[in-house]
Amino acid sequence: MFRSVVLFSLLAISAFGNSIVSQDSSRQEPRRPYGVPEASLPCTPEEQAWWKELREAGNELRGSFRAGDKQKKRFLSALHDATAKSFKPPIPDSRPVVLYKTEPRYTEAARQRGAAGTISVQVELLADGTVGEIKILQPLDPDLDQSAADAARKTIFLPAVKDREFVSANIRLVMNFNLY
Fold first, then answer.
1. Tens digits of residue pLDDT in 3-52
2. pTM higher than 0.85 for the full model?
3. Is the separation of the CB atoms in 10 and 155 below 8 Å?
4. In a domain, 28, yes or no
5. Domain tally for the chain?
6. CATH classification at residue 17
7. Is the pLDDT of residue 97 over 50?
8. Which residues span the domain enclosing 52?
9. Is 69 exposed, middle or buried (CB count within 10 Å of its CB: 0-12, 13-18, 19+)?
């Protein structure tokens, strides 16, 4: 019997547009943050308290292997408070930060067909913290393509920031499906 292994990686992020940016070692880019960064720009006390709650909830998600619904709801609720209360993120322009991603399922039908390989997916991360359009850039198997899209829809992230506003961005995810 074969064991299936799914490897899931975040390849590249485009913070402010619809294109995918590949990593280029000749350019010096700021280091990608891990987790929600500390507030570094002036803000009101209310914004400071909101950002602290958002940061704690986001870092709790980031640190958990299997985040539960409670942790996810806490982060998304804090993120949506920004819109409801017109809060501005107290950080400089930044790329989106993936806090939690779900591993795609290797379907039994794909396993029986011996499907293995790589799927590349472009995912639109919307400014409101939801996942928008998902486009399969490099398909592999219809069942595994659907599984990859389903996993991408469950991504939880801090949206990109531009001019102290959350903005939409695209990321490219690569998922490897291997049989051992």
1. 555 555 544 334 344 333 333 334 444 445 578 999 999 999 999 999 99
2. no
3. no
4. no
5. 1
6. 3.30.2420.10
7. yes
8. 4-23+33-179
9. exposed
